[in-house]
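Need a sequence for this fold. Nothing fancy.
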């Protein structure tokens, strides 16, 4: 009989990843104080990533991040990767709030589970976000669209 060791999240590692993602996100956002700002990073003629500032308060911001491709119109929205990220400016950290129709992402899941989430699903999602951010910084060409006014917070 084999027993599996229960997964324990490494809080130091999660916090470092959250801080790194926050700093990368700030590099991509031209002005985190503008609600409605849209930044699109073109990777090639078929693929781009889009950042939209959805909410700004004194200590936090909410940003949506999605992958846009030529194939998006021909496939279901379930196959179009997207995330919502909360930025905590006072703590200089980020948190993925929503990813791929998954809300309230826990730091640890028992395995196996009904939805087949990995034991370290939150860490995996944060690593995935980091990869997206790094791709946008290293390969993306950008435009800036402003769709509303500066928030007062």
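Here you go.
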């Amino acid at each position: 009989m084999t027993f599996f060791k229960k997964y324990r999240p490494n809080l130091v590692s999660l916090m470092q990843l959250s801080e790194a993602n926050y700093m990368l996100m700030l590099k991509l956002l031209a002005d985190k104080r503008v609600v409605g700002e849209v930044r699109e990073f073109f990777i090639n003629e078929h693929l781009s990533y889009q950042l939209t500032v959805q909410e700004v308060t004194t200590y936090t911001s909410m940003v949506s991040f999605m992958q846009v491709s030529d194939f998006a119109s021909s496939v279901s929205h379930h196959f179009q990767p997207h995330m919502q990220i909360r930025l905590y400016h006072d703590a200089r950290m980020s948190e993925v709030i929503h990813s791929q129709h998954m809300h309230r992402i826990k730091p640890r899941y028992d395995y196996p589970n009904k939805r087949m989430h990995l034991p370290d699903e939150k860490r995996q999602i944060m690593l995935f976000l980091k990869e997206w951010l790094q791709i946008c910084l290293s390969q993306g060409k950008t435009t800036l669209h402003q769709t509303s006014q500066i928030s007062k917070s």
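For context: The mean pLDDT is 82.
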